[in-house]
Amino acid sequence: MLSLSGVETYYGDSHVLEGVDLEVYEGEVVALMGRNGVGKTTTLRSVLQLTPPREGSIRYRGEELVGRETHEVAARGLGWIPENRRMFGQLTVEENVRVAVPDADDADAALDLAFDTFPDLRERRDAKAGDLSGGQQQMLSIARGLVGDNDLLLVDEPSEGLAPLIVEAVAEALTEAASDTTMLLVEQNLPLALDVADRFYVLDHGTVVDEGDTDAVSADGDRLRRYLSA
Ligand SMILES: Nc1ncnc2c1ncn2[C@@H]1O[C@H](COP(=O)(O)OP(=O)(O)OP(=O)(O)O)[C@@H](O)[C@H]1O
């Protein structure tokens, strides 16, 4: 479904991705792991053409994305749940969910899905998003991604900065969503990544240094830990 080959991405002179190769097959959840600053977010930004690669190829269902505009990429069914919880702070929780739904006729069903997934949001449906706690904002950000009716969802560090109970709710929501959405999931929380993902890639110094089935590393935790600890 998604195939990166030899992807090289820069910020100015800073060479961040030095030839990334990875594949995501339809129906799977793939975790992208690695220490801070190795280029995980940049990989997602490269796919979305927010930071277009200078070299390499990114194919989605066989079609080249490099050279396209971000809105053209999104129109093909690629959704993004960004790390920094982008939402409309002056709009209410309900309004934030409604504007994330492509077809207004689907909005009520989308709200039910969002509120069933994260009951806390139902209680705060009329609150301004900007007034929510960090954890609630993360739930809203994830809910907005889940109701977007995307075929492939790029999810960036959904558990970052969340209390353990909320991490559990996020893991459940992602697992539920994975039943009908393919995902590329950036996640440093190893138990969460192993729980939700089918396969993983580890990035280090802008390149893939390990990959495999998550089942194999669940039995051999050290294999990933050495790449992930500082
Ligand atoms: N807009 C930018 N301009 C310049 N350098 C950037 C920019 N965004 C990221 N970088 C640098 O690119 C490198 C990779 O960043 P990236 O955010 O992709 O890493 P990451 O693996 O997602 O790490 P983190 O978990 O900290 O987000 C880092 O050295 C970072 O400082």
Q: Brief description of this entry?
A:
GO terms for molecular function: ATP binding; ATP hydrolysis activity; branched-chain amino acid transmembrane transporter activity. The protein contains 10 helices and 10 strands. By secondary structure, it is an alpha/beta fold.
Describe this structure in words.
37% of the residues lie in helices and 27% in strands. The strands form two sheets. The protein has a six-stranded mixed β-sheet, with helices on both faces. By secondary structure, the protein is α/β, with parallel strands linked by helices. It has helices at residues 40-47, 70-75, 93-100, 107-117, 119-123, 134-146, 164-177, 190-196, 214-218, 222-228; strands at 2-11, 14-24, 29-33, 55-60, 63-64, 78-81, 152-156, 182-186, 199-204, 207-213. A hairpin with a 2-residue loop joins strand 9 and strand 10. Helix 3 runs parallel beside helix 6 and helix 4 crosses helix 6. It has a domain at 1-77 and 152-159 and 182-230: 3-Layer(aba) Sandwich (Rossmann fold). The model has no long low-confidence stretch (mean pLDDT 91). It binds adenosine-5'-triphosphate. Adenosine-5'-triphosphate binds at residues 11, 14, 16, 34, 36-42. It holds the Pfam family ABC_tran. Residues 2-230 form the ABC transporter domain. InterPro entries: AAA+_ATPase, ABC_transporter-like_ATP-bd, ABC_transporter-like_CS, BCAA_Transport_ATP-bd_LivF, P-loop_NTPase. Belongs to the ABC transporter superfamily. One of its GO terms (biological process) is L-amino acid transport.
